[in-house]
From TrEMBL:
<dbReference type="Pfam" id="PF00005">
    <property type="entry name" value="ABC_tran"/>
</dbReference>
<dbReference type="InterPro" id="IPR003439">
    <property type="entry name" value="ABC_transporter-like_ATP-bd"/>
</dbReference>
<comment type="similarity">
    <text>Belongs to the ABC transporter superfamily.</text>
</comment>
<dbReference type="InterPro" id="IPR003593">
    <property type="entry name" value="AAA+_ATPase"/>
</dbReference>
<keyword id="KW-0547">Nucleotide-binding</keyword>
<dbReference type="InterPro" id="IPR029439">
    <property type="entry name" value="Wzt_C"/>
</dbReference>
<keyword id="KW-0813">Transport</keyword>
<feature type="domain" description="ABC transporter">
    <location>
        <begin position="6"/>
        <end position="255"/>
    </location>
</feature>
<dbReference type="Pfam" id="PF14524">
    <property type="entry name" value="Wzt_C"/>
</dbReference>
<protein>
    <submittedName>
        <fullName>Homopolymeric O-antigen transport system ATP</fullName>
    </submittedName>
</protein>
<keyword id="KW-0067">ATP-binding</keyword>
<dbReference type="InterPro" id="IPR050683">
    <property type="entry name" value="Bact_Polysacc_Export_ATP-bd"/>
</dbReference>
<dbReference type="InterPro" id="IPR027417">
    <property type="entry name" value="P-loop_NTPase"/>
</dbReference>
<dbReference type="InterPro" id="IPR015860">
    <property type="entry name" value="ABC_transpr_TagH-like"/>
</dbReference>
<dbReference type="InterPro" id="IPR017871">
    <property type="entry name" value="ABC_transporter-like_CS"/>
</dbReference>
Length: 426
């Protein structure tokens, strides 16, 4: 059975910057199509490639995140896949029903109620009248806008419109779902609910293409990512790997920089060196499970930092955060402040209770009071945890932290009973 639902083969799309020329080129291309002639492949005056020679495929159950700067061609790609525009070169092959969440609520009438707009918008998206009646209660329940469902949409906030638009589109049950920045609006409850729903749909066999500038959402939702830049596919691979590459591409290139400073961080601080040490003070890259660890970071404060909060996070191999180290108050009851200049910060962990595996450190820095983030640095350090003597390792469980504990068998077997049990098992 072929699980491939989307295949994009060497697709290119060009646009014209000048409106008059664009209209002229459009008429010319239409005449060429009427005469059975091929499209003009070369760039004409004022034209540019919005998408150029892009190829990738998407299988059933995959959630692919498309990331990249504004103007990279991400939305153009979705419009090509959805059939709203045609490629100038290449081919797009689709299998199954397609649903697009490129602009939520685009078909809503402001004077109609939310309930009435469900019928109109669902019909626009291709649902039959019987399907709409069958799923109406589910759509209303998912939108969760209460009594406003019977109020005119013109009185809705942008978040309420997003809720209703997503609820309608997600109940189409397509084979392929295209999602473009729909989670940029709406509250946290809606975003979490929408992401959970998309994960459920992917598990049921739907293929999803997800575009977002929120890298945390891409990281949490997507099983794979594609980095777009200037209309081209720069990289395609595991989500965390591609996000790291994208962040690196957006990071100002400073001579001697080893760590990934997310955009804006360089205005407040710059990390010069991070090292990990054992209890004897020796620099290490490998440590026994549950042994003490010292993390030392040297940085340059670009501005005076009043009692900032350094939030170090430890990521597991799958890149989820599984532990944190937060700067605590000193004996005087206040976190240290740093004047502009070079400083060294040290954290001591008496027992690093991580199970064997490979881990990565990253950090976020907040202003006093943890209200505003002023910096984020990833790929600070890598550490391999090895088992200590007699440590039990359960390799088939997705666990990373071993809690300190003491054990006692309240009703142990008698030694003779234990021997009998072992013999019976043999």
């Amino acid at each position: 059975m072929n699980d491939e639902l989307v295949r994009v083969e060497n697709v290119s799309k060009k646009f014209c910057r000048d409106l008059r020329r664009s209209l002229h080129y459009g008429i010319t291309d239409m005449m060429r199509a009427v005469r059975g002639q091929a499209r003009e492949h070369r760039l004409r005056t004022d034209e540019f490639w919005a998408i150029q020679d892009v190829s990738f495929s998407l299988k059933r159950g995959e959630i692919v995140g498309i990331i990249g700067p504004n103007g990279a061609g991400k939305t153009t790609l979705l419009r090509l896949i959805n059939g709203l525009i045609l490629p100038d070169q290449g081919q797009i092959h689709l299998r199954g029903r397609i649903g697009a969440l490129i602009q939520l609520g685009a078909g809503f009438s402001p004077i109609l109620s939310g309930r009435e707009n469900i019928f109109v918008n669902a019909a626009i998206l291709g649902m039959s009248k019987s399907e709409i009646h069958h799923r109406l209660d589910q759509i209303i329940e998912f939108a969760d806008i209460g009594e406003f469902i019977d109020s005119p949409v013109q009185s809705y906030s942008s978040g309420m419109r997003a809720r209703l638009g997503f609820a309608v589109a997600i109940h189409m049950n397509p084979d392929i779902l295209l999602v473009d920045e729909i989670l940029a609006v709406g509250d946290m409850i809606f975003r979490n609910k929408a992401m959970a729903r998309m994960q459920q749909l992917a598990q049921s066999g739907m293929a999803i293409i997800f575009i977002s500038h929120n890298l945390d959402q891409v990281d949490r939702l997507c099983t794979r990512a594609i980095f777009f830049k200037s209309g081209q596919c720069v990289a395609d691979g595991p989500t965390r790997e591609i996000i790291t590459r994208y962040v690196a591409a957006c990071t100002p290139q400073v001579k001697g920089a080893q760590y990934l400073h997310h955009p804006g961080t360089e205005q407040t601080l710059w990390v010069e060196q991070v090292s990990l040490h054992n209890d004897a003070g020796e620099a290490i890259q490998q440590l026994e499970s549950c042994a003490p660890l010292i993390l030392r970071m040297t940085f340059e404060a670009k501005v005076d930092l009043e009692a900032p909060i350094f939030f170090f996070m430890i990521e597991a191999p799958a890149r989820q955060v599984i532990a944190a180290i937060i700067t605590q108050s000193s004996d005087h009851g206040e976190r240290p402040s740093f004047l502009r200049g070079r400083h060294t910060l040290e954290a001591r962990i008496p027992h690093l209770s991580l199970l064997p595996g490979h881990y990565t450190f990253r950090a976020s820095v907040f202003k006093k009071g943890k209200v505003e983030m002023i910096g984020r640095i990833t790929q600070l350090a890598h550490l391999q945890i090895i088992p200590y003597a007699q440590q039990s390792i359960i390799s088939n469980e997705n666990v990373f932290v071993e809690l300190a504990s003491s054990w006692q068998a309240l009703d142990p077997c008698h030694p003779d009973e234990q021997r009998n049990m072992q013999q019976e098992m043999v």
